[in-house]
Amino acid sequence: MKKCNRCGCFFIGDNDVCANCLPIDANDKAKLIDYCETNKSLLFSDIIHSTGVSSTNLSRYFSSTEFSQYSKNIQYNDICKKINLN
pTM higher than 0.70, yes or no? Predict the structure, then answer.
C-alpha cells in the first residue's frame, strides 16, 4: 500500500500517485516542462503563477530525477524562503 502524493488516498501500485491522480499529474508535468523549456528565468513563484502547479507538487517534481536538468536552475525568492520551499 502506498499513499498518493496528490490526494492522500491509499492505493496499490508502483507510481507516486493513484490511478485517479495520474492524468492530473501528467498534465502538470507537461505544463512544467513546457514552461521550463520556454522561459529563461525559473523563479519558483513565477512558475507557480504561470503554470498553476502547486508549490507542493513543484517541490516533488524538482526533487525527482525526471526534472533534475531544470531543478539546478530554479531561483527561490524571499517568499519561498520564508515558507521553506528551498
Answer: yes
Range of the domain at 45: 22-82
For residue range 75-86, what is the model confidence (pLDDT) as tens digits?
876 555 444 444
Tell me, yes or no, whether 44 lies in a domain. Answer: yes
Cβ atoms within 10 Å, residue 43: 15
Domain membership flag for residue 31: yes
DSSP per-residue codes, the chain: -EE-TTT--EE-SSSSS-TTTHHHHHHHHHHHHHHHHH-S--BHHHHHHHH---HHHHHHHHTSGGGHHHHTT-B--HHHHHTT--
Q: How many domains does the chain have?
A: 1
